[in-house]
């Protein structure tokens, strides 16, 4: 059994506050029938834990009647107020985890199939985390015996350093050890000390060796290193000073206490000035999701709700090393990165725009004669929303009303009125808006200019993956609304004409 098995298969019994569950088992089948947040290995443990659990189970946030503070205090919410003199805890921060569920970027069964090349190539530009790589590799058919070459760059060194260490972990640790190490390096603000010790014992010497070699090649600005294992190859090319920064990251955190890391993180995740924005997000979530959201905002540890956090006592060097500050915005949420029910390029006009996006990526696309299935996958996040107007708002609100509670008042700042306005985007006519967007930005000319066309039927991901289908069940709508999506997210697959 791996020394990290207890982190991969933790003791789920929630009766662990003062000591481990006396039964010392990871099996726990008795869920709290009211909240389903916690499970127990026996009725005895459930009864013993009730005095502690009832604070969560009876929490006001979990009630259907809960409303945000601005609603109960009858005031304007401060997320709609803009005062440049007020400090913003999110300034300069972003989510390292992205905002869309992970994708299998090949889907060989539905694309190349038996005609798949012996060497598949994927390019991820301006990528966040490695969720799409993990999903793609995990979904490769067992019958595929060729090579899969994946190339990615990063949006910032912090994100890229985390990706590097995650991939090195997968490369150099046995799977049963790599899995729990990767999960917590990826998502948890605090990690077990044993995880950091293992990283420093196995990965730090590898990086130090590269740094020593790079120091001998001073004229070279970039330095490349290759690791080989069985039939796999990992190639990494960084600036020389970035290799040093990577070494520093793995040496961290030194004397940086977990209590200080938690305080710094909570200054962002639980900022007083952002309470109304937090409450708006909570109000859109299923009621017991809210408690899970708040627990993760407080401790930042990715574990089932009732599992012990006792051994998570060390600041995650991937998240705190750069400046001993919390690098992500308060809206960053691991649930946005994986499907609850990417070669992917973000083409928002305020980043690059679709014309430049295609111009930069077309030279990297395989010729049609080599791979007729070759394509560029583009994600539009905000642009389609900007095509919307208030013309159909009343109709859209009427359509979405069946999924939402009846507002108490007609006041503009009534929390349920506001929720209806925001959620109306899930049922509005997005096809009409996308047609308007295409016309506004000259998609027909772009297609002709680059010799590309939009696929009529996507083969990798649905056009509008974050929208409920017509007459979707309440549970589906609740998940999509609670995810923070808007329903305007649009994928386009471009292929050779």
Shape: globular
What is the rounded distance between the termini?
54 Å
* Largest β sheet strand count, sense and barrel closure: 4 strands, mixed
Strand content: 5-15%
Biggest sheet strand line-up: 9-10-12-11
Q: What is the count of helical runs?
A: 19
Mean pLDDT: 88
| Coarse structural class | alpha+beta
The strand count comes to: 12
* Multimerization state: single chain
Low-pLDDT parts are 341-351
Helix content: 25-40%
Q: Over all CA atoms, what is the radius of gyration? A: 24 Å
What would you note in describing this structure?
The protein is an alpha+beta fold and 497 residues long. The protein has a domain at 344-388 and 428-496. Helices cover 37% and strands 13% of the residues. The chain contains 19 helices and 12 strands. It has helices at residues 5-8, 43-57, 69-72, 131-138, 157-172, 175-187, 193-202, 204-215, 240-251, 258-269, 275-283, 287-299, 317-320, 354-361, 393-400, 415-423, 430-440, 443-450, 474-482; strands at 30-31, 39-40, 119-127, 147-154, 190-192, 222-229, 232-239, 312-315, 344-346, 375-380, 452-454, 490-496. It has a 4-stranded mixed beta sheet, with helices on one face. A two-stranded antiparallel ribbon has the order 1-2. The protein is globular and about 65 Å long. The chain starts with a helix and ends with a strand.
């Amino acid at each position: 059994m791996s020394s990290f098995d207890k982190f991969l298969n933790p003791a789920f019994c929630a009766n662990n506050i003062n000591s481990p569950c006396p039964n010392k088992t990871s099996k726990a089948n008795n869920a709290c029938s009211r909240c389903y947040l916690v499970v127990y290995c026996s009725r005895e443990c459930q009864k013993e834990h009730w005095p502690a659990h009832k604070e969560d189970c009876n929490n006001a946030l979990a009630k259907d009647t809960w409303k945000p503070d601005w609603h109960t205090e009858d005031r304007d919410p401060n997320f709609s107020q803009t005062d440049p003199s007020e400090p913003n805890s999110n300034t300069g921060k972003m989510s390292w985890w992205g905002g869309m569920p992970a994708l299998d970027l090949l889907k060989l069964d539905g694309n190349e199939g038996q005609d798949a090349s012996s060497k598949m190539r994927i390019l991820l530009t301006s990528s966040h985390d490695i969720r799409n790589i993990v999903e793609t590799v995990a979904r490769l058919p067992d019958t595929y015996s060729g090579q899969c070459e994946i190339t990615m760059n990063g949006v910032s060194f912090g994100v890229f350093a985390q990706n590097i260490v995650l991939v090195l972990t997968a490369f150099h640790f046995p799977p049963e050890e790599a899995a729990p190490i990767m999960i917590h390096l990826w998502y948890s603000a605090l990690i077990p000390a044993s995880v950091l010790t293992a990283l420093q014992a196995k990965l730090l010497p590898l990086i130090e060796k590269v740094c020593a070699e790079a120091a001998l090649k001073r004229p070279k600005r970039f330095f490349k290193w290759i690791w080989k294992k069985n039939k796999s190859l990992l190639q990494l090319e960084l600036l020389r000073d970035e290799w040093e920064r990577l070494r520093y990251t793995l040496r961290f955190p030194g004397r940086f206490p977990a209590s200080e890391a938690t305080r710094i993180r909570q200054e962002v995740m639980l900022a007083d000035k952002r309470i109304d924005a937090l409450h708006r997000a909570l109000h859109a979530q299923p009621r017991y999701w809210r408690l899970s959201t708040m627990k993760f905002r407080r401790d930042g540890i990715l574990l089932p709700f009732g599992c012990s956090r006792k051994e998570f006592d060390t600041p995650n060097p991937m998240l705190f090393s750069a400046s001993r500050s919390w690098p992500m915005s308060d809206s960053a949420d691991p649930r946005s990165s994986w499907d609850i029910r990417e070669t992917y390029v973000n083409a928002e006009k305020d980043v690059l725009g679709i014309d430049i996006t295609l111009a930069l990526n077309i030279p990297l696309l395989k010729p049609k004669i080599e791979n007729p299935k070759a394509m560029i996958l583009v994600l539009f996040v905000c642009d389609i929303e900007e095509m919307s107007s208030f013309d159909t708002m009343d109709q859209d609100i009427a359509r979405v009303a069946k999924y939402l509670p009846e507002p108490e008042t007609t006041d503009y700042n009534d929390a349920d009125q506001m929720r209806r306005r925001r959620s109306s985007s899930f049922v509005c006519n997005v096809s009409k808006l996308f047609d308007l967007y295409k016309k506004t930005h000259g998609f027909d000319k772009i297609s002709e200019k680059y010799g590309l066309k939009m696929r009529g039927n996507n083969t990798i991901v649905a056009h509008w993956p974050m929208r409920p289908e017509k007459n979707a069940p309440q549970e589906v709508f609740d998940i999509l609304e609670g995810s923070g999506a808007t329903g305007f997210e649009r994928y386009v697959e471009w292929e050779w004409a």
